[in-house]
């Protein structure tokens, strides 16, 4: 007779009971009765967040409530809404994200540098990288790094869909970046790998029992990563440390370890007071004392703001980190790398955009400090600073694809059209409301809706709310839908 394995029953609160007062424990029990609501963060690089939220409320009946600490964030307070099953989600007009995960990027204080250097040390799958790109208006340079190669494709795809142009993706060990690029970045985010004990009542996260030895290994790695993050930050710059766990060993314990390991190099700011959030960090746990400074961190128990459990701390670098700095790895020469687009080709491309779309590329490239580069038949807009400040940086991808050369001429990419197509004055076709569902499912538009444009040319497709919802090729049979199959909605 085969024995049937029964799932291990794990107390959802468990060892956290002794960290809470009686009232807090009661509040936690109530908050765990229901999972936190789904939250979304609109993309201000592509749309006006407030206008789009109002539209979704009025036309689609979405019950949206603003996230108090994130202007672009909203929670869905009603059941039966599946934001991932929308074309707008798949085209990067918003990102589905727990409200608590919006806090780390919002903790950064705006600086005077309008072209900052930003590092996301452990970035995959990329949600917080998209937030960084939006928060700093996609200016300067965002390096989105992750040390795990298998996570890089998702990170690259997320940033491409979001339309981030002043960015690059790297696959480097986060523990070493601080020694390779000391005192380089204005802002550094470390959303550290963790045990994921967020006390979320839904899903499988945090359901596995974490052994003490695993907690020790996690805390050791998190400490190494945070020291690296502080090394990489400029003196006077800002670091945010966050985890999606409530384990003190990985939260306040890591801050305490770093304060002792590199004294005088950083200080914890009272970000809760600045943000209007009362969620003080612990100064001791399980008979282990921490620095009193850790009280300035933010420990979001689920009952605080109605989110999953989360931890975050805003740090400011106050002095150098005494360590041996080594040279960063040099990108080996290889065929097929990005090469500058010749000036004559760049001028021709500018003329193409003016003719087809009534859109001048040059002011945009100048404003964002971008350079046109070519890889095979594709043209990319790439941050100029990569060639000056980060020579030899072994990046996996950089910039945003503008489009591709084909037999029919130059064809604008979907990611470029959805990011900058709202500036196009020509070469745009508006899909009637009644045909939108068919377009979203990947169907072509019939001949009667085909504009009087050159056959074979590619146009940007807008909906009646002036959002770019794809690209299409003009033919005798109408407009061929060029949306990739993985983006279209299934019936």
Q: What keyword list fits this structure?
A:
491 residues; alpha+beta; Alpha-Beta Plaits; Rossmann fold; Nuclear Transport Factor 2, Chain: A; 9-stranded mixed sheet; 5-stranded antiparallel sheet; 24 strands; 28% helix; globular; disordered N terminus
* Name of the level-1 CATH class of the domain at 104-202 and 212-317: Alpha Beta
- How large is the share of residues in beta strands? 15-25%
Mean pLDDT rating: 92
Number of strands: 24
Distance between the termini: 44 Å
The number of helical runs is 16
Radius of gyration: 24 Å
Percent range for helical residues? 25-40%
**CATH architectural label of the domain at 104-202 and 212-317:** 3-Layer(aba) Sandwich
The poorly predicted ranges are 1-9, 331-336
And the CATH topology of the domain at 104-202 and 212-317? Rossmann fold
Find the structural class using helix and strand composition.
Answer: alpha+beta
Q: Overall 3D geometry?
A: globular
């Amino acid at each position: 007779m085969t024995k049937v394995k029964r799932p291990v029953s794990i107390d959802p609160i468990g060892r956290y009971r002794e960290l809470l007062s009686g009232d807090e424990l009661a509040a936690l029990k109530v908050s765990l009765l229901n999972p936190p609501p789904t939250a979304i963060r609109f993309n201000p690089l592509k749309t006006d967040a407030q206008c789009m939220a109002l539209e979704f409320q009025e036309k689609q009946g979405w019950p949206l409530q603003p996230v108090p600490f994130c202007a672009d964030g909203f929670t869905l307070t009603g059941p039966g809404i599946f934001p991932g099953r929308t074309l707008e989600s798949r085209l990067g007009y918003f990102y589905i994200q727990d409200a608590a995960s919006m806090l780390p990027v919002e903790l950064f204080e705006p600086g005077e540098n309008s072209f900052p250097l930003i590092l996301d040390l452990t970035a995959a799958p990329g949600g917080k990288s998209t937030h960084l790109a939006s928060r700093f208006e996609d200016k300067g340079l965002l390096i989105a790094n992750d040390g795990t190669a298998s996570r890089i494709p998702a990170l690259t795809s997320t940033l491409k869909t979001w339309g981030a142009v002043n960015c690059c993706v790297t696959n480097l060990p986060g523990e070493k970046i601080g020694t390779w690029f000391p005192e380089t970045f204005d802002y550094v985010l470390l959303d550290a790998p963790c045990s994921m004990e967020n006390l979320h009542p839904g899903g499988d996260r945090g359901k596995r029992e974490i052994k003490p030895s695993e907690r020790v290994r996690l805390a050791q790695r998190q400490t190494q990563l945070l020291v690296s993050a502080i090394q990489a930050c400029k003196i006077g710059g800002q670091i945010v440390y966050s985890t999606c766990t409530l384990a003190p060993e990985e939260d306040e314990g890591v801050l305490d370890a770093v304060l002792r390991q590199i004294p005088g190099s950083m200080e914890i700011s009272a970000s809760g007071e600045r943000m209007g959030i009362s969620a003080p960090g612990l100064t001791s746990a399980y008979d282990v004392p921490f620095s009193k400074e850790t009280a300035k961190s933010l420990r979001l128990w689920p009952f605080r703001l109605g989110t999953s459990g989360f931890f975050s701390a805003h740090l400011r670098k106050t002095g150098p980190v005494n360590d041996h700095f080594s040279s960063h790895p040099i990108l080996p020469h290889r065929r097929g790398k990005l090469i500058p687009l010749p000036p004559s080709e760049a001028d021709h491309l500018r003329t193409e955009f003016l003719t087809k779309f009534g859109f001048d590329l040059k002011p945009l490239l100048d404003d964002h400090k971008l350079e046109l580069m070519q890889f095979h038949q594709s043209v990319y807009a790439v941050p100029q600073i990569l060639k000056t400040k980060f020579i030899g940086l072994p990046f996996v991808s950089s910039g945003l694809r503008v489009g591709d050369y084909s037999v029919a001429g130059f064809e604008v990419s979907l990611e470029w059209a959805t990011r900058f197509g709202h500036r196009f004055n020509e070469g745009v076709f508006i899909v009637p409301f009644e045909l939108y569902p068919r377009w979203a499912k990947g169907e072509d538009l019939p001949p009667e809706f085909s504009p009087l444009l050159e056959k074979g040319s590619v146009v940007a497709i807008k909906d009646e709310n002036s959002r770019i919802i794809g690209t299409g090729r003009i033919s005798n049979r109408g407009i061929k839908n060029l949306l990739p199959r993985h983006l279209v909605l299934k019936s």
